[in-house]
């Protein structure tokens, strides 16, 4: 069974940091591009970042470039999203995606 399980999000202050993780199972993790998305109620899900199967290639949305870092550990079947210099507009439910499957989502709230 293909499954993605995200770590718990949380509440951080403006300027703070938080790291999300997403553990994959049920597919050959190292063969797949992995994605992080986020969604605010009433808005479409937004692509935040993605990373190539080897981890050598990364791409970011303009809104997070320079503040967020996506990485992966293929030995642990896990993808990460390190979020620094966080802003209130980063408040959203964050989802990982890979192999056509979504994680359950985790709430991240940035207080002003």
Verbal overview:
By secondary structure, this protein is mainly beta. Helices cover 0% and strands 52% of the residues. It contains no helices and 11 strands. It has strands at 3-6, 10-13, 18-25, 34-39, 46-51, 58-60, 68-73, 78-83, 92-98, 101-102, 106-111. Strands 2, 4, 5, 6, 9, 10 and 11 form a 7-stranded mixed β-sheet that branches. A 4-stranded antiparallel β-sheet has the order 1-3-8-7, with no helix packed on it. A hairpin with a 6-residue loop joins β4 and β5. The relative contact order is 0.33.
Q: TL;DR?
A:
By secondary structure, the protein is mostly beta strands.
Rounded average pLDDT: 97
Number of helix segments?
0
**Residue windows where pLDDT falls under 50 for at least 5 positions:** none
Radius of gyration from the alpha-carbon trace, in angstroms = 13 Å
Number of strands: 11
Q: Beta-strand level of the residues, as a percent range?
A: over 45%
The separation of the N and C termini measures 40 Å
Q: Biggest sheet: strands, sense, closure?
A: 7 strands, mixed
Helicity, in percent?
Answer: under 10%
Taken from the alpha-carbon principal axes, the silhouette is globular
Instruction: Provide the succession of SSEs.
Output: EEEEEEEEEEE
Strand pairing plus helix content: what structural class?
A: mainly beta
């Amino acid at each position: 069974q293909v499954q993605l399980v995200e770590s718990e999000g949380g509440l951080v202050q403006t300027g703070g940091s938080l790291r999300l993780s997403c553990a994959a199972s049920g597919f050959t993790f190292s063969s797949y591009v992995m994605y992080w998305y986020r969604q605010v109620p009433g808005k479409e899900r937004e692509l935040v970042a993605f990373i190539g199967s080897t981890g050598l290639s990364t791409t970011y949305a303009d809104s997070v470039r320079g503040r967020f870092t996506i990485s992966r550990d293929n030995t642990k079947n896990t993808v990460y999203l390190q979020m620094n210099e966080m802003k209130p507009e980063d408040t959203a439910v964050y989802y990982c995606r890979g192999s056509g499957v979504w994680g359950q989502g985790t709430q991240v709230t940035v207080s002003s």
